[in-house]
Amino acid sequence: MRALCIGGTGVISSAVAELAVRRGWEVIALNRGNREVPAGVMSWQADIRQEREVAALVERESFDVVMDFIAYTREDVERDWRIFRGKTKQYIFISSASAYQKPLTDYVVNESTPLANPYWQYSRDKIACEDFLMNKYREEGFPVTVVRPSHTYCERSVPVGVQGKNGSWQVLKRMLDGKAVIVHGDGTSLWTMTHSTDFAKGFVGLMANPHVLGHAIQITSDESMSWNQIYSCIAQALEVPFRPVYVPSALLAGSQFYDFKGNLLGDKAHSIVFDNAKLKHFVPGFTATISMREGITAAVSYVVAHPENQIEDPEFDGWCDQVISGLDGLRAII
Fold first, then answer.
1. CA 285, CA 292: separation in Å to the nearest integer?
2. Higher pLDDT among residues 257 and 240, named by residue
3. Band (332; pLDDT cuts 50, 70, 90)
4. Are residues 200 and 18 in contact, defined by beta-carbon separation less than 8 angstroms?
5. Domains within the chain, CATH numbers bracketed
6. What's the pLDDT score for residue 331?
7. Does the pLDDT of residue 142 top 90, yes or no?
8. Which of 192, 231, 265, 273 is least enclosed by beta carbons within 10 angstroms?
9. ω into residue 103 within 30 of 0, thus cis?
10. What are all long-range contacts of 135-138, with beta carbons under 8 Å and residues at least 24 apart?
11. NAD-dependent epimerase/dehydratase domain spans which residues (predicted)?
């Protein structure tokens, strides 16, 4: 079986490519060649945005699966459709669980939950991609499968709710320095995070599966934690106290310095529990085996042991101090 992976070096795509190779797939990663592809993956160096170049590259090729991990807009999937129609038995589009309606009418989410997100352009773009591809499936049988991941992570980055432009390390550094950290809301909303290796098990099970053409399928863990529990796991892994300062999500979304509106009001501020019955129907035996505590602890250990992952963000650190001190003044007035 032969798969073309557009991307192949990111958190999700590298885990999928690695597992597919272990299961006997011939996997080709098409990307600009800026990062090393996983072991056993063949590399084609090209920029998918250069449509004529890529079309010429694959002119005499055919694939069992084409999967695009870097398609974000309708224009991206329109280009893929033009290039790969007639050249693949299955095209897998990676959408996002953030596309589900916000605010939610039911905290239990499945594939029939409506798609609508007025807070985040990223999510609306993913919805537009899904609409185009499903129309092509209905009109001409274009063999699309839509996959909706939620918060998927790996050992290279510790997942948090509020962070700056340089990633999550500055949040961990604040904990190590004995500082308080900002937690959106009151920390009690439920959230689900999925380790990339667990996500890959579900994804590879959908590859070349004729029963999933024309379907949208979410892939997440079945476990949920409150944000207080998530941050507590991080603090315990660092062996430091958890010192939260709770800030309303709506207040954070109004920041003049950081764009938290989509990330919070359009996603993380809502309690979400995923129903993965549809995935388990198509991929019998699927289960996410890395618990959130286990995955978070492993990610903390990895980042602490690898200085190259410790990208400091003094701007975000100073912003946190200002927000926290402003809240202290507000509390004094109240």
1. 20
2. 240
3. low
4. yes
5. 2-152+193-219 (3.40.50.720), 155-191+224-272+290-328 (3.90.25)
6. 66
7. yes
8. 273
9. yes
10. 136/81, 136/85, 137/213, 137/214, 138/214
11. 4-212
Rounded to two decimals, the pTM is 0.94
pLDDT category at 156 given cuts 50, 70, 90 is confident
Structure tokens, 315:
């701007």
**Residues 227, 222: Cα–Cα separation, whole Å:** 16
Q: Which of 16-20, 30-34, 116-120, 210-214 has the lowest mean pLDDT?
A: 30-34
Residues 6+ apart with CB under 8 A from 210: none
Q: Which two tokens stand for residue 202?
A: 């579900």
Q: Which helix (H) or strand (E) holds 30?
A: strand 26-31
Residue 220: closest CA among 145, 301, 134, 283: 283
What phi, psi does 54 have (nearest 5°)?
-70, -40
> Which of 23, 133, 116 lies closest to 74, judged by CA?
133
What's the pLDDT score for residue 334? 54
**Is-contact 76 132, C-beta < 8 A?**
no
Extract the tokens encoding 331: 């509390």
Q: Order of strands across the sheet with 42-45?
A: 42-45, 26-31, 2-6, 65-68, 91-94, 144-149, 216-219
- Residue 265 is classified by DSSP as I
